[in-house]
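retry 2 of 3: previous attempt timed out while embedding adenosine-5'-triphosphate. Reduced batch size to 1 and resubmitted. Inputs unchanged:
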Amino acid sequence: TGRKVLVTAGEILVEIMATQVGQSFRAPGPLVGPFPSGAPAIFIDQAGRLGQPCGMIAAIGADDFGTLNLDRLRASGVDVSAIAVHGDAPTGTAFVRYAEDGSRAFVFNIPLSASGRIALTKEGRALLERADHFHVMGSSLFSPAVVAVVTAGIEQVKQQGGTVSFDPNIRAEMLEAPGMREALSQILERCDLFLPSGPELFLFTQAQTEEAAVAELLARGVRAVVVKKGADGASYHDCEGTVSMPAFAVEEVDPTGAGDCFGAGFVCAWLGGAAPREALRQANACGALAVGTKGPMEGTGTAEAVRRFLAAQQETTR
Ligand code: ATP
Ligand code: MG
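retry 2 succeeded.
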C-alpha cells in the first residue's frame, strides 16, 4: 500500500508586515513582504515538506502574489493541480502590524479576493478521488461557497473510507455569521481528529474543563482530540487515555503559523501509523521550528530539519 494522500481546501494569500512595533496603518511606514501565507496553505506546505503526498484546493489571481504562492507550494512537493488561477480577481492579502503589547492587527482582503471564488472544479474532484485524508481549517469557512467545498471534500473522503481532521482556528466573530455555528458543529461530528488551540476546545461544548470537554467531544463521535497549548506544548486524548508533552524550549521569534505547522506534523505522523507520543513529538518539533522563524510559512521544516532538531533535543536532555 502506498503512502496516504492528504488534501486540504481554503485560502491562499500573501502577508505583508509592518517592520516596526507600534507602527500605524493610517500613515506611510516601512513594510516587508510579500510572504506566502493562508492557514491551510501553511498546513499543506508543512505536510509537503515532511514528504507527505498532499494537495490543495484553492484559488489565486493571475498575478505575482499568486505565482509566489504557487511556486512555493510546488517546491515543497504539494500537488497544485487543483489551485485555480482567476484572471479577474486578485490573490488574497493580509497586512499585519504589531502593537506594543504583542497583539496583532490586520487589514484583510480574502472574501473579495480570488480565495472567495473557491469552487469544486474538475481538478478538485480528481484530487479528492485520490485523497485518503481531508483537513479542514476553520479560518477557511468564511463563506457558504467555501463551506460547500469543504463539506463535499469531507463526504467524498469519508465515502472512500478515509479520515478527516479539523483545526477550528477561528476568530470568535466568524462564529456569529449566519449558519456558521451549525456548519462547524456538523464538521466536528464528522472528524476523526479535532485540533483546537487553548480555549477553542470549549467552542462546541457545555463543559468548561479539559477533561469534561474531551469526554463530551468523544461521546459525539470525535475519535481523538489534540489540544495545542503554545509554549506549554500539547495534549492528546482518545478513549484510551491522555498523553501530554511539553513544548521544546526555543526562542519565540514569530508565533504566526505555529498551530498550522503543528497540525501538519501531527496529522502526517498519525497517517503514517505513529503512536500518539511519537506524533506529538513531531508536531511539537514542527511548532517549535515555526515559532523560531519570522514569516508565516518561512518556518516550515523539511523532514530532514525535523530529524536534526529532534536529534539535537535528545542530546541536550540526555
Ligand atoms: P496559530 O497562531 O498558528 O493559530 P495556535 O494558537 O493554533 O497557533 P499554538 O498553541 O500557539 O497554536 O502553537 C502550536 C504549537 O506550536 C504548540 O502546541 C507548540 O508545540 C508549538 N509552540 C507554540 N509556541 C511555542 C513556543 N513559544 N515555544 C515552543 N513551541 C511552541
Ligand atoms: Mg490556530
